[in-house]
Design a protein that fits this description.
This protein has 474 residues and is of the alpha/beta class. The chain folds into two domains: 2-244 and 457-473, Glycogen Phosphorylase B (Rossmann fold, 3-Layer(aba) Sandwich); 267-453, Rossmann fold (3-Layer(aba) Sandwich), CATH 3.40.50.2000. The chain has 16 helices and 17 strands. The protein has a nine-stranded mixed beta sheet with strand order 3-4-5-2-1-6-7-10-11, with helices on both faces. α1 crosses α16 (456-470) and α8 crosses α11 (356-365).
């Protein structure tokens, strides 16, 4: 079975968030299961491209309105990621360093989608499934089924995965002429709230759509930034499949980024050595419970609540707890966290930016990982933490609800709270400090977590079963 995954991100080529981790892992596990899975993404002028060898496998030209674009399809020659990787390069449009943030971003992703369809159409390929990820590839199902240029692909099933339903990629009808020849009687399939909405169009046109956790599928019907009714009426097409993690990359026994390796049997001593190295770097006391945060400093992650919650916790508990944060984003939040670092240098430290190696070291060395998310479709950070024996402290939402059981339950291993609020975060911190003081329970929880299976093996099989279910419709 030949599968094309379309995505704006893929780890380790280009990453902003969890989308990249999923697209960098799912095709590998599908390939190991016997499928011929490939990832197609825009070309970015980044280290991965310069450090690896690519062959040009196709060249062509297409139109973006009246603008003629020349494009190349580049294939990584060794399949070193465990699957075929293709990059679409368009000089002046898809050859830049950053993934997002350009004023012509809409044009970038429209051109990406058109170039992909032109390539597989003109090269005579007929995939068994085209799997689109988030709004950056959301126009592909519509174009496959309602553009006269791609009639040959009209019977190819499409699956659309929603990694974050808050972002739609919407734009005005004045850009309609960027699209190739379409059936104008079908333009309602592009429309939502008076504009062209790629995410809404994909949900309408794809054969099936998935979300990255079962609970998030339910949440979209009442919280999806204006698409609630659409998800309600299209709910029969939806399927919630929990993301997995790449257990080859995230393995405390072999992780090359850790100063000390460990397994479940040696988790207590192994984590302590990693904690000591981490605390030495950031001038923190390794004898105290270490609560950490890793992620983008944006509202949906609840990061704006952290400065007040940390300050209140430090005032309540004095010198009994340490905090370490890794992330970047909102300038006001960054400034407030840096102020905390200056005010409480013995108990709080901050790394503004992102460092993949440091993230691994935090998962291994921390006692707790805090995720006060307002929106968390699946969440991977809590799964990485669990894999490394670090107790997750999470708000009960989205995939966090699906993956973390509170320690109050007999089989629990995490701390959950209901509201994205300073009060609930501080209560969770108090619970964490109490839990940390119970050495035997912490040892039990760490071993329990490291024995849990959140690998892609299970999730990849669910996607394969979904693909197989679409074949009889051909």
């Amino acid at each position: 079975m030949r599968i094309f995954h379309l995505s704006a991100e893929c780890y380790p080529v280009a990453k902003i968030g969890g989308l990249a981790d999923v697209v960098g892992a799912l095709p590998k596990y599908q390939t190991q299961a016997g499928l011929q899975a490939a990832v197609v993404m825009p070309y970015y002028n980044r280290k991965f491209v310069h450090d690896n060898v690519f062959d040009t496998v196709f060249q062509g030209a297409t139109l973006l309105g009246t603008r003629r674009l020349y494009f190349e399809i580049l294939k990584e020659t060794t399949n070193k990621l465990g699957f075929e990787l293709y990059l679409i390069k368009i000089p002046g449009l898809l050859d830049r360093e950053n993934i997002y943030g350009y004023p012509d971003e809409k044009e970038q992703f429209i051109a990406f989608q058109i170039a992909f369809l032109d390539w597989i159409n003109w090269s005579g390929q007929t995939p068994d499934i085209v799997h689109c990820h988030d709004h950056h590839s959301g126009l592909v199902p519509f174009l496959m089924y309602h553009s006269s240029l791609y009639k040959r692909l009209a019977n190819v099933p499409t699956v659309f995965t929603i990694h974050n339903g808050q972002y739609h990629g919407a734009f005005g009808w004045e850009k309609l002429d960027y699209l190739p020849e379409i059936d104008f009687y079908k333009t309602g399939l592009l429309d939502w709230n008076g504009g062209i909405n790629p995410l809404a169009s994909a949900v309408k046109c794809c054969w099936r759509f998935t979300t990255v956790s079962p609970n998030y599928l339910q949440e979209l019907s009442y919280s999806s930034n204006g698409l609630e009714y659409l998800f309600y009426i299209e709910r029969h097409k939806g399927l919630g499949i929990l993301n997995g993690i790449d257990t080859e990359v995230w393995n405390a026994e072999t992780d090359p980024m850790l100063p000390e390796h460990y397994d479940a049997a040696g988790v207590t001593k192994g984590k302590q050595k990693n904690k000591e190295a981490l605390c030495a770097r950031f001038n923190l006391d390794p004898k105290k419970p270490l609560i950490t945060f890793i992620g983008r400093l944006v509202s949906e992650k609840g990061s704006d609540l952290l400065p007040a919650a940390i300050e209140r916790s430090l005032r309540l508990h004095g010198d009994k707890v340490n905090f370490l944060l890794l992330g970047a984003g909102d300038a006001l939040t960054e400034a407030a966290l840096m102020q905390l670092k200056d005010t409480y240098p013995a108990n709080c430290n901050v790394f503004v930016g992102y460092d993949e190696a440091l993230a691994h070291q935090i998962y291994a060395g921390a006692d707790f990982l805090l995720m006060p998310s307002r929106v968390e479709p699946c969440g991977l950070n809590q799964l990485y933490a669990i894999r490394y024996g670090t107790v997750p402290m999470v708000r009960t939402t989205g995939g966090l609800k699906d993956t973390v059981i509170d320690v109050a339950d007999e089989d629990g291993y995490g701390i959950r709270f209901d509201e994205a609020s300073v009060d609930d975060i501080c209560t969770a911190v108090s619970r964490a400090i109490t839990l940390y003081s119970d050495t035997k329970k912490m040892q039990l929880l760490r071993k329990r977590m490291m024995g849990l299976d959140f690998s892609w093996d299970r999730s990849a099989k669910e996607y394969i079963d979904l693909y197989e279910s679409l074949k009889p419709q051909l």
